[in-house]
Amino acid sequence: xxxxxxxxxxxxxxxxxxxxxxxDLARAADLMERFNATRATEAQLRADLxxxxxxxxxxxxxxxxxxxxxxGRYISIGAGSFLNFGVTLLDVAPITIGRNVQFGPHVQVLTxxxxxxxxxxxxxxxAAKPIVIGDNVWLGGGAIVLAGVTIGADxxxxxGAVVTRDLPPGVVAVxxxxxxxxxxx
Length: 185
Known about the structure:
Layout: H1 4-9, E1 14-15, H2 19-36, H3 43-53, E2 56-57, E3 62-63, E4 67-69, E5 75-77, E6 82-83, E7 87-90, E8 95-97, E9 102-103, E10 108-110, E11 112-113, H4 118-122, E12 125-128, E13 131-133, E14 138-139, E15 144-146, E16 150-151, E17 156-157, E18 162-163, E19 171-174, E20 179-183
Parallel strand pairs: 2-5, 3-6, 4-7, 5-8, 6-9, 7-10, 8-13, 9-14, 10-15, 13-16, 14-17, 15-18, 17-19
Antiparallel strand pairs: 1-12, 11-12, 19-20
Helix pairs in contact: 2-3
C-alpha cells in the first residue's frame, strides 16, 4: 500500500490531513515564519532559511518576504531568479522555476487540484499536477499559474493573468484565461 505522500507526489488522489504530510507542513510553516520575520539586512540568514525550506535554490535567488508555500521541499528555483513580496507557491506537486525568472508581487503558483464531484471533495480528497516555469520568464504582479502548466522560456505573463494551459516560449500572454497576444522579438 502506498503512503499518502507517495500518492500526492504521483498526482493521485490523497488526503492532506495525513500525519506524515501534516508534519511536513508544520516544518515548512516554522521555516516560513522565521524567514518572513527576517530583516532586509539579514541576507545570509534569509539564504540559510531558504536553503533549509526549499528543495533546491541557487545562492543568488532573491525572495522578498512575506513568502508562502505548502511544503517547500518540492520547489526548485534557478540562479538569478527574483520573487517579489507576497508570492505563494503551493507545492503539493513539484514546482520548477528556471534561471533569471522574475515574479511580480502576489504571484500565485498553484499545483493542487480538487475533484469536481462534490462527494470526493467533501470526503477530503485532492490531487496535484506539477508546474514548470522556463528560464527568463516574467510573471506580472498578481498572475496566477494553475496546476499542470508549463510556461516556455522568455515568456511574459501580464499582471493579473490566470494561466490555465501551457504557454510556448517567447510570447506575451494576458487575461483570464491567459491568451497569447504577441511574440517577443
